[in-house]
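Help needed: design a sequence for this.
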């Protein structure tokens, strides 16, 4: 079961980072290939809520169910994902640093069919690259929002 973990420091409070992570309308702005995120059950940010993440990659469209199993806004989140030929657990930690918030995302996944089960271990580098790109987009989005709120445009 491939595991990928990446971290980035964002020049913002844990609360500001958490607010963006929990904004389902903002998710496509920092998540590769995500067209939209749809809440289907529960309340955003509360353990037990379920959403459908609608992805488009080239001509391929697919939906991934995202179930939030642990949520302590401003501290950590844990989601279980299923769809698109795989299942994964995603853990997100927010740690205060002198320069802002360190965001650490740990993705652990496996294939749900023979094809994805076979190729997924070989895609670890691509998953890590995409995760780094998404985290950079998250940092840019959060820091831009903080700048606008602070009036430092």
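Sure. Designed sequence:
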């Amino acid at each position: 079961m491939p595991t990928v973990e990446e971290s980035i420091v964002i020049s913002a409070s844990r609360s500001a980072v958490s607010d963006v992570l929990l904004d389902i309308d903002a998710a496509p702005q920092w998540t590769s290939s995500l067209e939209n995120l749809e809440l289907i059950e529960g309340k955003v940010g509360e353990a037990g809520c379920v959403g459908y993440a609608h992805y488009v990659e080239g001509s391929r469209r697919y939906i991934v169910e995202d179930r939030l199993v642990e949520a302590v806004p401003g501290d950590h989140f844990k989601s279980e994902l299923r769809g698109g030929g795989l299942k994964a657990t995603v853990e997100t930690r927010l740690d205060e640093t002198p320069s802002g918030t360190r965001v650490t995302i740990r993705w652990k996944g496996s294939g749900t069919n023979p094809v994805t089960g076979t190729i997924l271990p070989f895609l670890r580098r691509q998953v890590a690259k995409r995760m780094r790109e998404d985290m950079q987009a998250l940092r840019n989005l959060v820091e831009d929002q903080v700048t606008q709120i602070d009036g430092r445009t």
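The beta strands are 3-10, 34-41, 50-57, 60-72, 76-83, 86-97, 100-111.
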